[in-house]
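Exercise 7. Given the encoded structure of a 197-residue chain, write a plausible sequence.
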């Protein structure tokens, strides 16, 4: 969902895009490729001519434990090629607005039990990034990320989950893609950030 929106946003802004997926299927306006992101050789070859890599890889249900390995492979490949990497991760590593000592992963208001394995994977993903020398940036989306409208607006924060006046933490996948491309085009230098309405 997010990857498709990022491809659309990048294409609309005039970027040359190579969209990578498990199947190689994609939009007609971009080059597509089928790659196993854990295969460093394949990824490295794709990155040789890229200025920036954006990863919005999501594991299949039940395969969340593969996230650290996949992330390490991407980081290794980008470090070898000197390519900046922007990872769209999860909200799990953010702190809760209820208490800076509480991670969102442990706050059931934002991460109910059925989403916990994904949140655990996102925390592990960020930890892998923090231990790597590659040029990476980690974007934690808000608690609720759904398809919707592109408004072109969002708020930006650092490591605390953003909520609106009603306590809701949300953004459309389309506006998350806007935030991704804004960071790609104008890097903030911040390693970990979040966005929401």
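Solution.
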């Amino acid at each position: 969902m997010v990857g498709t929106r990022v491809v659309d946003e990048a294409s609309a802004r005039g970027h040359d895009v190579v969209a990578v997926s498990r199947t190689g299927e994609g939009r007609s306006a971009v080059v597509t490729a089928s790659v196993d992101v854990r295969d460093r050789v394949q990824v490295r070859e794709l990155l040789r001519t890229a200025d920036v890599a954006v990863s919005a890889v999501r594991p299949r249900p039940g395969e969340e434990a593969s996230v650290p390995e996949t992330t390490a492979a991407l980081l290794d490949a980008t470090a070898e090629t000197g390519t900046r990497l922007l990872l769209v991760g999860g909200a799990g590593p953010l702190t809760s607005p209820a208490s800076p000592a509480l991670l969102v992963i442990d706050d059931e208001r934002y991460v109910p039990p059925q989403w916990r394995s994904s949140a655990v994977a996102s925390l592990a993903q960020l930890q892998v990034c923090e231990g790597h020398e590659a040029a990476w940036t980690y974007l934690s989306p808000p608690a609720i990320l759904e398809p919707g409208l592109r408004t072109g607006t969002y708020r930006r924060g650092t490591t605390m989950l953003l909520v609106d006046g009603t306590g809701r933490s949300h953004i459309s996948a389309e506006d998350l893609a806007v935030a991704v491309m804004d960071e790609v085009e104008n890097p903030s230098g911040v390693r970990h950030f979040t966005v929401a309405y």
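Remark. The domain at 2-196 is CATH 3.40.50.720 (Rossmann fold). Students should compare their own answers with the one above.
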